[in-house]
UniProtKB/TrEMBL annotation:
This is Conidiation protein 6-domain-containing protein. Residues 1-14, 47-59 have a biased composition (Basic and acidic residues). Residues 29-46 have a biased composition (Polar residues). Signal peptide: none annotated. InterPro entries: Conidiation-specific_6. It comes from Triangularia verruculosa. Residues 1-72 are annotated as: Disordered. Pfam families: Con-6.
Length: 72
């Protein structure tokens, strides 16, 4: 009979996600903000999707979320 192996340790998905957000570079935040801003101006997206993008954009810092190399 084969020997049973121990189950791997479970990930703390919520904790890992919070850690990843804390370590995001300004360029990454700016890229996310650009995607949400593009969604807001896309006539092919639903109002629900646009509302989600409005919320996410606000969480990212609104207009201050956009990274500019000359504003370091």
């Amino acid at each position: 009979m084969p020997e049973l192996r121990e189950n791997p340790k479970q990930r703390d998905v919520v904790g890992d996600a919070a850690q990843e957000n804390a370590l995001q570079a300004p360029e990454e935040i700016s890229n996310q903000a650009r995607g949400h801003k593009a969604n807001l101006s896309n006539p092919n997206t639903s109002e629900e999707s646009k509302e989600n993008s409005r919320q996410k954009l606000e969480e990212l810092g609104g207009e201050n979320a956009f990274f500019s190399k000359d504003s370091k």
